[in-house]
Amino acid sequence: MLPEGRNRPAPSEEQPLAAPPPPAVHPSFVLATKAYLTEQDIQNSLRALEIDPTREENARLHGVGLIDRTRKLLKLPIATFETAATYFHRFRLVHRDDTYFLKDVAAAALFVACKTEDTLKKSREIVCAIFNVNAPPHEHMTSDHQYFDNGSRVIISLERLMLEAAGFDFRTRHPQKLMHKLTKHFNVPKAHGITASLILLDTYRTYVPLKMVPVTMAFASLELAGRLENQRSEQLEKPENYALWHTSREEIMGKSCRQTLFDLLEMYTHSRVATHIGDNYPADRFLTVRIPLNQEAKEKNYPRYTGWVDEAASKPQTPAHPLLPVAANREPYQAETAKNYPVRYIFDPAIAEAEGLQVSKFFELEEEQYEAEE
């Protein structure tokens, strides 16, 4: 209260009014890391980014091929290539291709993979190797050239985005060891095993590593190699043998995502030049192999996409991005309103779901209705 004899000053007309409080935004966004994705997750991500399927396939094959050639020039192990290809795929499912140069994304993926697999390479070395891969031999340069200063800074700045796209999940899975065990267990011929190993590398040019466990990839590569060489192994395709390796015929032919064999055959049919074994066979060979697989899938009623949820017709044509964080009040991530707030990454989706449901109760709007007396 004001003391007596002192009047309250009249409000000045020139005094600005107080700004309204900003809208309440929960300062915490949660992203549950997904070790594996479904085909529906991948397609919804591409649709949310409005990426043309044909352009996406060409960019994917070109980017993974660039990573593979750079890996060979730097003499890095296959495990580093597989991890880099996985990071490359996950980055492109979150960010549009017209936002960054493809070679920078490939370099950043390889840079992060070198750290994950403990095959450390400097950013300048990777940028220099990518330049030398695409340049004639007489134009090759060394990594200490000042030309690579800007490229080095770019991939270092992309490193954080690469880790965010991967959900800070550094768990890596490599199917090569399982492939060697399977070849020894089933006495696979050496030539057959080499072809299967090359097919296994070609799976990283598709989204199969994001959808399938390593044992499924190894089984599918061995079976496809046998079909291409007309050396099918009955022991390899027996149901009881699948159970020994904790997988099934249904999983090879199409569990939780697009069938592994069909993914590979589609790539070999349309883009065989960009693969390891595509040029080793005539184009009609892959069509010949695919016909009996289609018949088997039809006879045994193997689904093309298992776990596919039909979206309601009332939903918009462009769905919400399934790989971006979600606010605690269950609202989707919006970059313009949430860029200044932290994002927490959780490995267990069940914990993230339980936390979101518990916190969302505090964001429910409670309204009371009153009858006005006349």
TrEMBL record:
Cite the Cyclin N-terminal domain residue spans from the record. 48-169
Question: Cross-referenced Pfam families, in alphabetical order?
Answer: Cyclin_N
The entry lists its GO molecular-function terms as: cyclin-dependent protein serine/threonine kinase regulator activity
Write the record's keywords in alphabetical order, separated by commas.
Repressor
**Entry's Gene Ontology BP terms:** regulation of transcription by RNA polymerase II
Q: Which InterPro entries match?
A: Cyclin-like_sf, Cyclin/Ssn8, Cyclin_N
Task: Outline the segment boundaries, as ranges, of region: Disordered.
Answer: 1-24
User: Does 4Fe-4S count among this protein's keywords?
Assistant: no
Assembly with partners or alone: Component of the SRB8-11 complex, a regulatory module of the Mediator complex.
Biological role? Component of the SRB8-11 complex. The SRB8-11 complex is a regulatory module of the Mediator complex which is itself involved in regulation of basal and activated RNA polymerase II-dependent transcription. The SRB8-11 complex may be involved in the transcriptional repression of a subset of genes regulated by Mediator. It may inhibit the association of the Mediator complex with RNA polymerase II to form the holoenzyme complex. The SRB8-11 complex phosphorylates the C-terminal domain (CTD) of the largest subunit of RNA polymerase II.
What's the protein here called?
RNA polymerase II holoenzyme cyclin-like subunit
